[in-house]
UniProtKB/TrEMBL annotation:
Top-level taxon of origin: Bacteria
Keywords in alphabetical order: Membrane, Transmembrane, Transmembrane helix
Protein name, UniProt field: Tetratricopeptide repeat protein
SUPFAM superfamilies (alphabetical): TPR-like
Segments forming domain Ancillary SecYEG translocon subunit/Cell division coordinator CpoB TPR: 21-148
One Pfam family per UniProt: TPR_16
Keyword Membrane: yes
Organism ancestry: Bacteria, Pseudomonadati, Pseudomonadota, Alphaproteobacteria, Hyphomicrobiales
InterPro entries: SecYEG/CpoB_TPR, TPR-like_helical_dom_sf
TM annotation in the entry: 21-46
Length: 219
């Protein structure tokens, strides 16, 4: 009988302790549970929104490229500007780069170079993309600028370790040749030929230009 009594006392004490703990911490536990549910729901909702926004930006970019390929440069520029202002992820930057190309397509070569220069000067952009912008500006200037203009953009890309060196050298060589400086263009084209890592089509063009320049009597 004494064992039964003690068991009942112990049970009542445990119940009283549990009731006290629940009275003290129960509301906090409920609040934490509600916060966890709300946070999880908020994250799922944000992830859904971000995914949809990224997909929409991708679709807008594809549509802008299609417009540009059809020669609808004004419509393409408007679409790219909207994407630059409201897009997410990498699409605003891609829109900036493509906008510069569309400007060149429209015949606004000064505007195109300025747009590429702005990307190249933006320290918030990865260096690889900034280098691509420098190269694109230089390529526009081959036909619409001086050798000095081209060199100021692509000169830093001429290092032997730079992956864009082949195209940078071609831009420099073509610019020198078009400026009536074949003696300066020849060694740059030769650099391309001597670089075994240069792409095959670029080496073919360099070979043709070396033969052309040497055929004119330049050694």
């Amino acid at each position: 009988m004494s064992d039964t009594f003690f068991r009942e006392v112990n049970q009542e004490m445990r119940q009283a302790q549990a009731q006290a703990l629940w009275t003290r911490f129960g509301p906090i536990a409920i609040l934490l549970a509600v916060l966890i549910v709300l946070a999880t729901g908020g994250w799922v909702l944000y992830d859904w929104w971000s995914t949809n926004k990224a997909n929409a930006s991708g679709d807008q970019f594809s549509q802008a490229l299609q417009l540009a390929s059809e020669g609808k440069t004004d419509e393409a520029a408007a679409a790219l500007q909207t994407l630059e202002d409201d897009g997410v992820g990498a699409y605003p930057l891609l829109a900036r780069l493509r906008m510069a190309t569309v400007l060149a397509q429209k015949g606004d070569f000064n505007g195109a170079v300025a747009a590429f220069d702005q990307v190249a000067a933006d320290n918030a952009i990865p260096q690889g993309l900034r280098d691509i912008a420098k190269l694109r500006a230089g390529l526009v200037l081959v036909d619409h600028g001086s050798f000095a203009d081209v060199e100021s953009r692509v000169g830093p890309l001429n290092a032997d370790t730079n992956p864009l060196r082949h195209s940078a050298r071609e831009a420099l060589a073509l610019s020198a040749w078009k400026e009536g400086r074949p003696a300066d263009a020849l060694p740059i084209f030769q650099q391309i030929l001597d670089d075994q890592a240069a792409p095959g089509n670029l080496r073919q063009r360099a070979t043709m230009m070396v033969e052309l320049i040497r055929g004119s009597g330049v050694k």
